[in-house]
Design goal:
heterodimer; A: mainly beta; six-stranded mixed β-sheet; five-stranded antiparallel β-sheet; 0% helix; B: mainly beta; seven-stranded mixed β-sheet; four-stranded antiparallel β-sheet
């Protein structure tokens, strides 16, 4: 069975500071891993995904994430936070070579402090 | 290229009623997945349709049912509505069901409130 754990339902960082959102996964088969962002009253938008190529994945809006198999982690980072980054972020996992059903974490709300 | 659209955007129903939510997939996409997102939670997988056939189902009771049409648009039907069905219902389409990490493109959702 697959699962995703996001540490911290709320994270606050100052504008210009490093953003780090934590995600740990559990999967019985090699996983695909995703980070999605959700702005208020909108659907989800894909930030980046890991599909067994490079372990360091670069996404949109300056975000990146590193797949660490030994730590079963896929943490999301951005060197310098911007006010527009305030949103809900979801880590998700699906099963490689099976189908594309996605299991989501509970989300982390990112607050940017001026 | 038209993205994923959902209708209606908001809906208010009472307990015991039935509701139908609609989704138009992105052009060229033959797979549609439905998710329920309760307040403060991540999306929960309801079911997926691939070329008009159900291709997997999450832990939802049979009163949640769906359809996919030849043009790959889809409906989610919920019978005998309960208060806990109040949520944002998200539709996502993808290019294929093959598991190569195909991106799912999400619609804006339908906000269902059950009174």
């Amino acid at each position: 069975a697959q699962s995703v754990t996001q540490l911290g339902s709320h994270v606050s960082v100052s504008e210009g500071a490093l953003v780090l959102l934590r995600c740990n996964y559990s999967s019985s088969v090699p996983p695909y891993l995703f980070w999605y962002v959700q702005y208020p009253n909108q659907g989800l938008q894909l930030l980046l995904k890991y599909t067994s190529a490079a372990t360091l994945v670069k996404g949109i809006n300056g975000f990146e994430a590193e797949f660490k198999k030994s730590e079963t982690s896929f943490h999301l980072t951005k060197p310098s936070a911007h006010m527009s980054d305030a949103a809900e972020y979801f880590c998700a996992v699906s099963r490689m070579n099976r189908d594309d059903k996605i299991i989501f974490g509970k989300g982390t709300r990112l607050h940017i402090l001026p | 290229e038209t993205g994923v659209t959902q209708s209606p955007t908001h809906l208010i129903k009472t307990r015991g009623q039935q509701v139908t939510l609609r989704c138009s997939s992105q052009s060229g996409h033959n797979t549609v997945s439905w998710y329920q997102q309760a307040l403060g939670q991540g999306p929960q997988f309801i079911f997926q349709y691939y070329r008009e056939e159900e291709n997997g189902r999450g832990n939802f009771p049979p009163r949640f049912s769906g359809l996919q049409f030849p043009n790959y648009s889809s409906e989610l039907n919920v019978n005998a509505l309960e208060l806990d069905d109040s949520a944002l219902y998200l539709c996502a389409s993808s290019l294929d069901r093959s598991a190569r990490g195909n991106e799912q493109f999400f619609g804006p959702g339908t906000r269902l409130t059950v009174l």
